[in-house]
Design brief:
By secondary structure, this protein is an alpha+beta fold. It contains eight helices and 15 strands. The termini are far apart. The site of one calcium ion has 4 residues, from β3.
Length: 263
């Protein structure tokens, strides 16, 4: 596979941030047993990773804009290009020393995602996509799974926990989908859900109340792997609405029908 110069820059930034996260992850494993726990430490791990990504990308393309989970929006002089970054997607996993988290970076050009990187540094799984050039896991081309029946499908989701009250609508959706599929998974990392969907490991994924940085990188992977991605009403405003439904066309249609019936 040939990567463009831009994608190479993104891969380099994600790898460097991944090395920083691996170092911090080792420390988190040690801190699990300490009374204070690793919480304070983790809140700095994502900031460290974001700084690394920011400085790599800024050095390579000084005029591009940024939207970063930690640092917010930084406007560049180039009105066409914007980096969208989640330096650590799966913070709760990271905090508990569960090795399921990723660095996620997307490049938006004139409002459209044209290149993406999602990197799990522990599994050393590098997912990349460029518009029109396919989705890849390391050097392997990706295709979404071809299962057509909900009864055979593994479906991922996420439920926001705000304080102590879970999202009631999300729980109702879960109650409707769980009995009609082969199993529900909750990875704790939205970009991993989308990457695994592109890789054919998951057959469907829905979630609401997300940030643009949770959806943008994986959205291109799903599209380039032949999948469908929409918001929960079936329109193509997933990133701006912060809600996502992704699957192959058959499972997407089934999930959409069920989700629309839940209010
Ligand atoms: C979170 C993860 C999780 C999703 C949350 C996100 P973070 O991102 O993607 O899977 O359910 O809503 O906020 O906080 O780990 O970057
Ligand atoms: Ca996230
Ligand atoms: Ca994050």
């Amino acid at each position: 596979m040939a990567r463009s110069a831009l994608l190479n820059i993104m891969v380099q930034a994600a790898s460097k941030a991944g090395r920083s996260l691996i170092r911090d992850y080792g420390e988190v494993e040690n801190l699990q047993v300490s009374r204070k726990g690793p919480a304070d430490f983790v809140s700095n791990a994502d900031k460290r990773a974001e700084k690394i990504i920011f400085s790599e990308l800024k050095r390579a393309r000084p005029t591009y804009s940024f939207l970063m989970e930690e640092g917010g929006e930084i406007k560049g002089t180039d009105g066409q290009h914007r980096w969208i970054i989640d330096p650590l997607d799966g913070t709760t996993n990271f905090l508990h020393a569960i090795p399921l988290f990723a660095v996620a970076i997307a490049l938006e050009r004139n409002g459209e995602i044209v290149a993406s990187v999602i990197y799990n540094p522990i599994m050393d799984e590098l997912y990349t996509a460029e518009k029109g050039a396919g989705a890849w896991l390391n050097n392997k081309r990706l295709r979404v799974a071809s299962r057509r029946k909900m009864a055979d499908a593994i479906i991922a989701t996420g439920i926001k926990v705000t304080g102590t009250s879970n999202d009631i609508l999300a729980l109702r959706q879960l109650a409707a989908i769980s009995p009609i599929c082969a199993g529900i998974r909750r990875t704790g990392s939205a970009s991993t859900d989308l990457a695994w969907l592109a890789a054919g490991r998951l057959d469907g994924y829905w979630e609401a109340k997300l940030g643009a940085w949770d959806i943008a990188p994986g959205s291109l992977l799903v599209k380039e792997a032949g999948g469908f991605i929409s918001d929960l009403s079936g329109t193509n405003r997933a990133i701006e609405k912060g809600e996502v439904l992704a699957a192959n066309e058959y499972i997407h249609a089934s999930l959409l029908k069920t989700l629309k019936s839940i209010t």
